[in-house]
Amino acid sequence: MRLSISSRGKNSRQEMGFTLVETTSALLVMMIGGLGICAVFAFAVKNNTGSRDRALALAVAQQEMERYRQMKFLDSGLTAHAATSKTVTNGDDRTYTVVTTITDTTTSLKTIKIQVTPLLNKDEWARGTVEISSQRSAFSLGAYAGS
To answer: Which residue in 110, 117, 101 sits closest to 71, CA to CA?
Structure first.
């Protein structure tokens, strides 16, 4: 068996490979794609941090509401008052403003509204107020007492 070796003449173009221009343009395209992925990653991290702040604000509001739910209806902590504000720091060193409003809807019904706002996040949408409300009623027998 005989192997033939091609001659390397001036007119023969049998070289295989990439030119420097092709390699540079491929790297440029890959770099643009990589920068796009980095921008999306940074956006996702920022939004996840804001979402975490809002979720923790909701947890703070629920803890406050549970504190009021455990009180008896005639407890002095459940007396109707205008909005009171306090600053709360949770275990993750996140700071929140908690505004609590208790109103007497009727003589046997109170409405408790709790608003929690994260303070440390720079994003406007993440600093939105989380609000929960609940109604408490006094246990009382109606006109028909069962006899």
So the answer is: 110
Task: Please write the tens of the pLDDT for every residue from 107-132.
Answer: 888 999 999 988 876 666 666 788 99
Count CB neighbours of 29 within 10 A.
10
Closest by Cα among 17, 18, 15 to 27 = 18
Give dist(CA 115, CA 97) in Å, integer.
8
Closest CA to 117 of 61, 51, 48: 61
Q: What is the pTM of this model?
A: 0.64
Q: How many CA atoms lie within 13 A of 54 on its CB side?
A: 16
Q: Are the C-beta atoms of 80 and 68 separated by less than 8 Å?
A: no
Task: Tell me the two tokens of residue 23.
Answer: 């390699």
